[in-house]
Each structure stands twice: as structure tokens, then as C-alpha cells.
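Progress narrative, Year 2. Work on Vacuolar ATPase assembly protein VMA22 from Trichuris muris advanced from sequence curation to structure prediction during this period.
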Amino acid sequence: METSAQSCCNRQYDYFILDFLERLDIYVKKKLELERHLKNCWYYLAQTRLFMGSMSRVSELQFDFRDQPASVTLEVSEEGDHFQLSRTPTEEMKHRALKRFGILVPHSLKLAQVSVLTAVQLICEIAGLQAKINALIRELDSFK
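Result:
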């Protein structure tokens, strides 16, 4: 017959395993969502190249190599298990990124830009989940 201490320990272990599996499920779903956004990005970029024709070949002469402020920055906590994006929400910066493509920027290029931004956000979420999963694995090793 189990003692109450063993029963409590088994219950904690079960909750721990459930938490681990839930986080693993979320991790896999986020990875699939990231893959979908990256595929969409490549599709939209290919569509833009098709629409723009000869203008789509951006060479080194057309690219602005001057230092530009970052539109998105990544903050990492001291423990390394929390990642947060912060954006610089200025209209000027938003329009400047696509300015080299002319006044009438193709809609597919804007969609590609949104897909990339969403992918970057997902990558940060996935990195945070991965850090939590790694911490749970270390904690699981301490149960043994």
C-alpha cells in the first residue's frame, strides 16, 4: 500500500509530466506555424519578383548600406529563459524599409514583410519555450 508521501510525490510527478507534454505540444505547434509563415514569405517574395519583372533585381548599387536604426530589438532576461521583442513603431521607418522598390510597392511585398515579422516573433516565442522545456528536463533529472 502506498503511503501518503509516495502518493503526493507521484501526483507531483504526474503534474510535472503533464506540464512538460503540454509545453512540448505548444512547441511543435509553434514550429509548424513558423514553417507556414516562412513558406508564405518565400511565396510572396517570388510573386513580387514576378510582378516587378526587371525591377526585382536589387543590386549592390541600389541597396543602401548606411547604418539604419533597428525596427525590432530582442531583449533576453538574465536567466536566458525569457525573450521579448520590442518594436520601434514609427511610420517613417515602416515606409523607409520598402522605399527602394518605388512609390507603388506591390501588395505581395508588404505581405512578405508581415510574414517575416511574424516569423521573428514566433522564433522568439519558440526560443522561450525551448528554454522552459530545457529547464523542465533538468528538473525531471532531479526527480530521478
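The helical segments are 4-52, 91-96, 107-143. The longest strand covers residues 72-76.
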